[in-house]
Specification:
The protein is α/β, with parallel strands linked by helices and 371 residues long. Helices cover 36% and strands 19% of the residues. The chain has 2 domains: 184 residues, Rossmann fold (3-Layer(aba) Sandwich); 154 residues, 3-Layer(aba) Sandwich (Rossmann fold), CATH 3.40.50. The strands form 3 sheets. It has a 6-stranded parallel sheet, with helices on both faces. Strands 4-5-6-7 form a 4-stranded parallel sheet.
Length: 371
């Protein structure tokens, strides 16, 4: 029940639909208190799973994980790596040794959803020090698992992994929200607050609807966003509305309240909170632009941002790009399609919605087969 969990489940079910047997293993599940076995997917594409609680000792989890792997005897183990999934500061020392024991000499593929912190010139001394320890943990992990395939989803991470002599291939992220089968033209009307006046679909072109999906980063500047979005609307005589959908987080809620104080006849905020996948998809299909609180170089590591792109939205990066001492800016910005770093929105059009999952699954299978 998190971004990487969504990614792993959906990828496994899609790969299973291509005729491969897949199994899921969660090594540090924070939402359960005892080991839980089950099945995911539906019909012929069922994926057996085992979830191990993070509260159990590593010794017990490694024992159960080894037994699971011995039982299913996989040709490949795909490690979906998020250092912070194993320790609150990403400092899970001994991770490589534990994973090596679970792997048992099988063929390994690693997908790095995150690597180490502290590479940006603006990073604090603390983050740089923590990042060096995280890098040591990741290097030890790579040396012990000796993966035949290394994937990541951003050019920045690809470059930094190459710097430690572990070349990685870009495997794009896909969104975590399936695209609704049919657009419901009344969806926005049903959610439209009474105080905004009656919503008229014929008047839709006089509005710009921005949407933020999921958590809001603590370094986001709501005042800057409000000012630049308002100015962009004024240039074309449009009224603006920001819809927040999903869980923005405690700090995010406080930031949204700052914007709410700015409400006027030409500016509105609608906070919807947690919604069903169908409602989230309808929201993204109805909006004009996505809004990201992450620096632009990290947008393609966000399942929520990619979900907005899959739904045809241009995503506005509302924070500046960081500077990296060991990575040129052109490398960092490579491949940023559907991402805007300014508010010159006039004439911009949505693209055709479409899921990246089938493309990603095909590349995943081909990269493993080729190795």
């Amino acid at each position: 029940m998190d971004g990487v969990g969504d990614y792993t489940r959906r990828l496994a079910v899609e790969v299973a639909s291509r005729g491969h047997q897949c199994f899921l293993l969660s090594l540090a599940d924070a939402r359960i208190s005892k080991a839980t076995a089950g099945n995911l997917g539906s019909g012929a594409f069922v994926v057996p799973s085992l979830r191990l609680p993070a509260t159990d000792s590593w010794r017990e989890r490694v024992r159960q994980a080894k037994a699971f792997c011995a039982h299913v005897d996989p040709d490949w183990i795909s490690w979906q790596i998020v250092p912070y999934g194993y320790h609150s500061r990403g400092l899970s020392f001994g991770l490589g040794k534990r994973f090596q024991e679970i792997s048992g000499g099988r063929r390994n593929q690693i997908m790095f959803h995150e690597i180490w912190i502290g590479e940006a010139a603006q990073s604090s001394v603390k983050n740089k020090v923590v990042g060096k320890f995280q890098q040591h943990i990741i290097l030890d992990l790579l040396q012990r698992l000796r993966p035949l395939v290394v994937h990541t989803h951003t050019p920045l991470y690809q470059h930094l992994l190459g710097n430690i002599r572990y070349p990685a291939t870009i495997l794009p992220l896909f969104g975590n929200i399936p695209i609704a089968a049919q657009l419901n033209p009344d969806w926005l009307k049903e959610k439209w607050p009474e105080g905004w006046g009656e919503f008229d679909l014929a008047d839709r072109k006089s509005w710009w609807i921005f949407v933020m999906f999921g958590s809001i980063h603590p370094e986001w500047d709501p005042e800057d966003f409000w000012q630049r979005a308002t100015e962009a609307g004024q240039r074309t005589g449009r009224k603006c509305a920001l819809i927040s959908i999903g869980r923005p987080g405690t700090i995010g809620e406080r930031m949204l309240r700052q914007i709410q104080k700015r409400e006027s006849e030409s500016w509105h905020l609608l906070t919807l909170g947690e919604q069903s996948e169908e409602d989230i998809s309808q929201c993204l299909l109805m909006a004009d632009f996505g809004v990201s609180a992450a620096p632009p170089e990290y947008i393609y590591k966000s399942g929520t941002a990619v979900a907005m792109i899959e739904h045809g939205l241009q995503v506005i990066a509302t924070r500046p790009m960081y500077h990296y001492r060991h990575c040129p800016p052109e490398t960092v910005s490579d491949g940023m399609r559907n991402v805007r770093i300014d508010f010159h929105l006039e004439g911009m059009k949505k693209t055709q919605p479409g899921s990246l999952l089938p493309i990603v699954a095909t590349q995943f299978i081909e990269d493993l087969s080729g190795a």
